[in-house]
Structure formats: C-alpha cells, structure tokens
Amino acid sequence: MDFELPEDVLAFEREVVAFLEANRSDDVMDRNPEHLSQTVETPAKRAFMRKLAERGWLGMSWPKQYGGQERSGIYDFVLTEALSRFGAPQPGKGVGIVGKTIIRHGNEELKAYFLPRIIRGEIEFAIGYSEPQAGSDAASMQLKATRDDVRGGYVLDGQKIWTTSAHFADWYWVGARTSEHKHKGITLFLVPMNHPGFQIHPTWTIGDERSNEVFFNSVFVPDSHVVGKVGEGWTYICEALDLERFAMLPVGPVEMKLKGLIEYVSTATLDGEPLAQDPVVRQTIAKLAADLEVARKLQRKVISEALKNRVPTIEAAMYKMWQSQLGQRIANYALELIGPDAALKPEAPEAPAGGRYERSYRYTVVDTIGGGTSEIQRNIIAGRGLGLPKCF
Ligand SMILES: Cc1cc2nc3c(=O)[nH]c(=O)nc-3n(C[C@H](O)[C@H](O)[C@H](O)COP(=O)(O)OP(=O)(O)OC[C@H]3O[C@@H](n4cnc5c(N)ncnc54)[C@H](O)[C@@H]3O)c2cc1C
After folding, report:
1. CB of 341 within 8 A of CB of 355?
2. Domain topology for 251-385
C-alpha cells in the first residue's frame, strides 16, 4: 500500500505552491490559515479566482467537452489543500457542487450558460437547502414552488436560512417543494440572486462569518432553469453533499492549527519552565499529531473511493466528523494550555500565539455543524455503514 502521491501530482503541487508564494496578499489570504476561506466575497478574491482559472486549475477533472482536462480528481484535492494552507479562497461551490451536477443532470441551456462561466471563475453561487424547520432533515424543506403554466415555470414562495453567500453570489442554487412527497417532491432551481422577489437578511455566526436568511416573494423561475428532472432534486442534493463533505473540506486548516500550537509550545514557558518539557503537554501534542494523521488517512480513503467512481458516503461522513472535531479539540486544548490570555484577539499586541486560538475556539464550533452535524455523520455511519436499524 503506497500512501505517497505520484511524481506528476507532486510536481503539480510544487507549481501551485510556487504560484501561491508569488501571489501572497493580505487582501486574498488569511494570515492565520487555520480557517477555511470558503467565500469569494471581495473583488480581490474574485480576481484571484480568475487567476486560478487562467492557469486551467478550475474544473480540472471536468470532461474536455465542457472545458475541463479530464485530469484525475487528485489534482483538485492537491489544489484545495495547497490553497487552504495559504489561507487562500477555495474554488468552492461552482466547480464542485453546481458544475458537476449540471454536467450530470443539467439541460443544454444550463450547460451552455453556466459551465464556461464557472470554469473561467466568473460566477459565484449560494446554496439554499436549509430552512427554519429543515436543517439536518433538509428533505423536510417547505419552500413552495407553484406551477405557472401560463409563463412556463414555477413561482417560489417561502424562506431559507443559513444561505452563506447570498449577499454577494450571482446565482442561487435552491431546493423547493414541487409536490407533497417528502423526497420525490423536491426540485432544484437556479435563480439570479438579484431577482427583485428576494429579501436578504444577515445572520452572523459565532465564528464572525456572515450567513443569511433569504425570503422569497413570488420569485418566478422559467422551466429552463429547473436543474435536471422535476422531483429529482433530493437525489442531486445528496450526491452534491457527498462531494461537499470531502471536496470542500481540506485537512490543511487543521494542520495549521496544530502547527501553530507546536510552535507555541516550542518556545513558551509556564512558571519559568519550558512547556516543551512538560510531560503532559508533550503527551497531548503527540496524541493530537496522531489524530491528525488519522484525519489525513481518512481523507485519502475518501479520495481513493471517489477516484474509483464510487460515491464515498460513509468514508466522507467519517472524515467530516473526525476532521471537524479534531479541529475543535486542538482549539480547545490551545485555550486550556494558554490560559485566560488565549481569549485575547489578534489585534492585542500581547496576545499569545498571535491571538489565533480565540477565533479558532469559536470558529471550530461552526465547522462541526455546516455541511451536516457530527451527530448526522454518526447516523450515516451507523445506519448506512454498519446497517444498524433506525432508532426513531
Ligand atoms: C456557518 C453555517 C453555514 C451554513 N451554510 C449553509 C448554506 O450555505 N446553505 C444551506 O442550505 N445550509 C447551510 N448551513 C446549514 C447547515 O447545513 C445546518 O445548520 C445543519 O444541517 C444543521 O441544521 P440545523 O442548524 O437546523 O440544526 P438541527 O437540524 O435543528 O439540529 C439541532 C441539533 O440536533 C441534532 N440532531 C438533529 N437531528 C438529529 C438526529 N436525527 N439524530 C441525532 N441528532 C440530531 C443536531 O446534530 C444538532 O446538534 C450552514 C450552517 C452554518 C452553521
């Protein structure tokens, strides 16, 4: 069993790292790259995304007929990881979720309009599944899509919550109810985010990131902007969630959290004694390093299954749960180790470890929720992975 990447992939990784070194910028990259930069909100970040596109690094695994290179998905993985270690924004939803679903299920009009724009890095998406009564159980969504035969389309009314990029995205990838059947009653739509029927209200998370509530008031969507078949949206959403759980969750931010903690421990003292010589600290850091190695191996397992064209549902659930909870364990331990001063923010000059763990502590809570909570991942493992019957 070989855990090393092949030489051509390593060469690509070196190329990406050299590009990122040459394009270092505080406008685009987070100085403390222990948080995943998922949004491409500012003009500088959008310009950066176009630079990635110019190098042919967006949609590398897409079919050639849609502008891709039919490269192995391992290249996407290497790119995502390198970007995350530099605190640079991720290609994100367009290439991974929307693009791949349109390629598999979209009509020719959607393909012709969206795929070239995605691959050129020109277009951003918001993803709308969650609603006030439909979070973990997203299939309970109630956003109503009413048939309008006169205009040839659907009229959407209702509400979404937690739509992260709604305040700057160009298009909304949104699930709505076209019939009462729980799973076969959901249809996916693409709607321009500047539609006058939207009202967008901010929701600030504990991790200082903006998400949104979106209210729909008679939002008309033509038939051409239905994704795939009416009533098949839930199938497409599930496929895309499996993709999201690994394609959009690099291990880099967790590596960076631990790297920062090791650097702190290497130089800090407690009561005049070097922390690095404290046996309990050494034991704990070593355990976290072993846990990080487990995360890397779980991630490799997900990728290896995906490369065999299997949908790695169970592996992705294990990785998502382990990766996000490990990030939380590292942040929690940093606070315990550093003590009350760990609550100082990066702006405070005397903040230990550059104040990075104050935000990490808060942000890692969010990591364990977005994309499906840890409890839901464990339900997937228990039910679909181990075959245990549902308990309720
Ligand atoms: C920062 C952030 C960004 C997000 N971005 C988006 C986005 O862009 N688009 C989008 O559509 N959604 C987004 N979400 C929504 C996210 O997917 C949901 O928050 C998540 O699925 C949980 O749903 P909920 O918040 O309604 O919690 P609930 O489903 O109400 O869960 C509450 C608690 O109950 C537990 N629980 C629920 N059901 C079970 C069960 N069957 N077994 C055991 N425990 C259970 C949960 O684990 C959790 O601890 C985002 C969320 C966050 C926090």
Report:
1. no
2. Butyryl-CoA Dehydrogenase, subunit A; domain 3 (1.20.140)
